[in-house]
Amino acid sequence: MLRELGVSLLMAGLLTALVLAGLGGREGFIPLTSSGIGGSTAVRGLGNGTQVGFFSYDDPVEIPDLEGYSFNLSLRFALHAAVVYYVPKPLNASRPQQPVPRPLGANFTVTGVEAYILSPADAAKVEAAFDAGLTGEALRLAEARAVARIPMREAGGAYVGHAAVGPGSYKVVVFYRYVVSIPGKMRPGKVFAKPMVDASISVTGTVSPTPVQLFRSLDVAGLGAVLLGLDWYLNREEYAGSWPARTLRRASSALGRLRRGRGREPPPGGGLRGSP
Amino acid sequence: MKGYAGKLLYRVWVYQRYVHGTLLGGIVVALLILVPVHAAAAVLLAPTVLSSPGGGPGLGFVASATELLLVFITVFMVASYAGDLSGGGGQLFLSQPLSRAGYAAAWLVATVATPCLVYALSLALPLLIIDPRLLSALGLWNLMRAVLEVAEWGAFLFLLATVSRSRALVVILGLFAELLLPWILLLPMALFAVVPGTPPYSVRVFATVYVVLYPSKYSFFSQGGAVLVGPGAAAAEASTLMAAYAVAALLYAKERMEVV
Fold first, then answer.
1. In this predicted complex, what is the ipTM?
2. pTM metric for this prediction
3. Residues B105/B96, Cβ–Cβ less than 8 Å
């Protein structure tokens, strides 16, 4: 039992250290969470002709506190805006029905997308400020309270960004600025913009074995080696000689001990117990 | 009395050492497979284990797969005990001052307890090395239910081997009971599962017996009140059954076992 326990501890310690070293340092190799959502976003005017859109990822992201692990949060944010410019028809007194506006094409230009990683409480405050129409205050709060600010860059028809995050619970909110330009000289009308969002978030981890982890594996392996050493000290005769001889020696040793009771002295006549 | 008991225990200890020595090769091969698989799974799933309630299902799936190896090891080791009984190996040692119960106890430890212990260590030690908090996040039940199931069936097969001394019977019945029977028994319960509402009492009793026999499949019934006992009670009943099989095997060995 001592020998089997020793072998188990020795092999578990050494093999785990090898696996940790082998898998260590590979970027984004360990998946933690991945989710995607879509929908419309709230928009507000910023006052200088620029509009601001706001989007909050539904579920909080939970990053565990784990020894030797680091995590990277990646965002993908695709905007699909339906934008039209309505030119109202003059009211006709003879036709009481609502006049049907004439839609015209308009350009929707995104001027910047930024994501903020916030604690769930701060994210709720930012969302409340935005919903109350305090766009500037919401932006200021997000800037001030953010754990990380991710300027998103355009890639493949979407905006992407990533940031390293430490342990904790986070919510991600995105602000994007856009302007709507009406082509040519048009009569006064109303812009209708409904940006739709297709967003995804993923967190991946990288393990870099720490000295403490390696010491722990060596501790386990060392304990196994001590147990094996103790077993060798107590049963030296079983370890001597070549493999087939050792098998016979083990049987002969067991038979001899059973015959004699306690003690490890060689049986009379030597038998298989002598040196080969 | 103390000296006599000490002598008996010493003889069992000497013989179990010999039996363990003959089975050590299989244990080393098993460790060479189990530890890297469990360690790699632990590295990859450690973040999920800590961030999901109850440790998440990931590591449980890996343990279910590696449990198959434990099943094979245990079945073939118990079969080698049956072979020792029928092949004359036991005669050699029982001609020495070693009791039949002591002989059976040594084999029981070597063929059932040791593989289960080695498997449990191969699962728990990588988690301990990566981060000790992983062990408490997973919990004893999630870690040990596969071990408990194999130990329970291993003790049953040991009793069967002691009574029948047939290697073939142990291998065939062991693989059938541990690999096929749990899925066959799920079929009638699956028929009741499609009916909405709480299943009839007889089905719940059947499901409870099933989780006591196969504790590692408890998660199949953890929702909807399909079983009458919680995981702790199922584990306790499975342990009692295991102990009953082991004691029955030792008593049979002491009173009735014939070595030919």
1. 0.86
2. 0.81
3. no
